Amino acid sequence: NRTVYIGNVPADATIEEVLNTVRTGIVESARLLPEKNCAFVSFMDGASAAAYHQEANTRKVNIGGQDLKVGWGKPSAIPPQVLHAAGQGATRNVFLGNVDPSITEQGLREDFSQYGPIDTIKVLHEKNIAFVHFTTINNAVKAVANLPNDPKYSGRRVNYGKDRCAKNNNNMGNNNSNNNGGAMSNSFGFNASPYPQYGSNMPVSFNPSFDRFPGGGRVGMPRNMFNDGNVNPLTAQGNRTLYLGNIAPETTCEDICNHIRGGILNSIRYFPNKHIAFVSFVDPQAANNFFNQATYQGVTIKNRRLKVGWGQNAHALPAPVIQALSDGATRNVYVGGIDDSITEEKLREDFAEYGETELVNILKEKSCGFVNFTNVMAAVKAVEGIKSKAGYENVRVNFGKDRCGNPPK
């Protein structure tokens, strides 16, 4: 059983005061029933619940001098969507960066309450960061998925921090064996907490929707651009592939890619006759972020809302793909120094031997063009082989920016 019952709660107690007594593990959800003077706290695992139950009945816990009665609630399974989100690093705690003086606790409470009940809010203006603990992981996921589209928060870093209720637990109960002495080690690979008193495990520089290609669309991507000191998303565990269904018959692969944002792609496979597609991101977390956004906001193409789900299995990226991406490869091939003899149709025909393309465009004023393939390795073959073709001996060839890696609209 992962749910504990807390009785004899003072009538004027808050959910924050109730959760202040919890320090044994990650909480999935907490409900306060003031009319019944009780609360229910559901942990992510039974061991954390058992530790709290034992601790509360051994040393007694109280609120305002009133001893609480701690027992067991009704057993229940973790909702699948919560289990998946937690496996990708989600907690009740939403981390907010780039916080300026205009951001206040009251303002955050007003803005964030639309996503669900709130436990605590902390603003650290000296660090330009803030933390909003919801009472459930599910509501935190909603916030993280939607905030990048809120004009007030779109320019700020948004992610998950450490659950304050896991302060004294070394196991953390999140099915992650890579624990680090009580510091949460999630799919982002952030360990020791720089702000333990506020429950953050987020490095100040991290942005979940950042463009991993800092060139802003320029060619000549840096080598080892993923080696930023955090976990390498190329080797991170997790499902990278999403299923898209209910696709309108007239939809093109270009249309689909135009609606995918938040993470660069390894590949996209589109089956028009079946009205489905499979989209594989480079970073499992980017896949999870897009899934959450699509689930709560929807993705509509050609007036049809797509069905979005997960691919069957979580596959690691092939070694050649990891090497290519580490060296700066993307699906997008830049062709510079072209003249008027090179047209979009010619690019499409000449590059077709290397693989399927989804978008080809030319910028005549800049004498360059871009050929977007449906997978990274096809683009690698094109970069390696195109200059051997007649008419391409003197062009500049490199990798451009994958537009799917742009921040969500």
Model description:
This protein has 409 residues and is an alpha+beta fold. The protein is built from 10 helices and 20 strands. The chain has helices at 15-19, 46-59, 80-87, 105-112, 137-146, 253-258, 284-297, 319-326, 344-351, 376-385; strands spanning 3-7, 27-33, 38-43, 62-63, 66-67, 69-72, 93-96, 118-124, 129-134, 158-160, 241-245, 265-271, 276-281, 300-301, 304-305, 307-310, 332-336, 357-363, 368-373, 396-399. The strands form 6 sheets. It has a 4-stranded antiparallel beta sheet. A 4-stranded antiparallel beta sheet has the order 8-9-7-10. Helix 5 (137-146) crosses helix 7 (284-297). The radius of gyration is 24 Å and the shape is elongated. The protein starts with a strand and ends in a 10-residue tail after the last strand.
